[in-house]
User: What shape does this take?
Amino acid sequence: MPSWLALGDSYTIGEAVAAHERWPAVLAQRLRQAGTPIDEPQIVAVTGWTTDELAQGMDAAPLAPPYDLVTLQIGVNNQYRGRPADDYRNEFTSLLARAITLAGARAARVVVVSIPDWGVTRFAREQGRDHRLIAAELDSYNAIASDASSRAGIRFVDITGISRQHPELLADDGLHPSAAQYALWAAAIEPSVHAALRT
Assistant: This one.
């Protein structure tokens, strides 16, 4: 059974939704229904993690490479904490290199997922946050991730637009996506994962 390592933060672990509703679980089910066998994803993700904290979490995790698929979605907490984009670039590039190694040195088996825009959420409005500034900073982060992925030969999936088109699809906390939004993400990510697994 093909193995899958899912690296990330609250969006990968599915903060505020049930375990079967987070996007890696939904996508695994979609893959199986489409005739593509896949093991349950091993998730290394904690709500609030930044790029450097994910790296530390990977150091401590019981990893068993090579994985047939590695997904990576990280960076929202770097932006939330106001960290410099250059730091994100360096740390994200390092994480990409590690992801490739964990995928058995097969860059084509790595899929990067963009950061959603939390500036459109009820939480951001209630906090009085500047949604335009958040959007601009996240666009910058996502451009960095997309560029680094392209340079490494890695597929990049943009789900940011989905988060902006469906700001009402939120969990009870008013910040994280609902199961319905994660299902939309899974559908958007599925073609790239199919392609990666066929490589």
About this structure: The mean pLDDT is 97. DSSP finds nine helices and five strands in the chain. The CA atoms of residues 55 and 95 lie 7 Å apart. The radius of gyration is 16 Å.
